[in-house]
Amino acid sequence: MTAILSNLQAVNASINNAALTAQRDAADIMLLAVSKTVPANMVREAYSLGQKAFGENFVQEALDKMHHLNDLPLEWHFIGPIQSNKTRAIAENFSWVHSVDRLKIAQRLSEQRPDDLPPLNICIQINISGEATKGGVPNEEAASLARAISALPRLKLRGLMAIPAPVDGLAEQRKPFAQMRNLFNQLNSAGSSLDTLSMGMSHDLTAAILEGATIVRVGTAIFGNRNLATEIMIKKVNSQQKLSPEK
Ligand SMILES: *Cc1c(COP(=O)(O)O)cnc(C)c1O
Question: Would you say residue 245 lies in a domain?
Answer without folding.
Answer: no
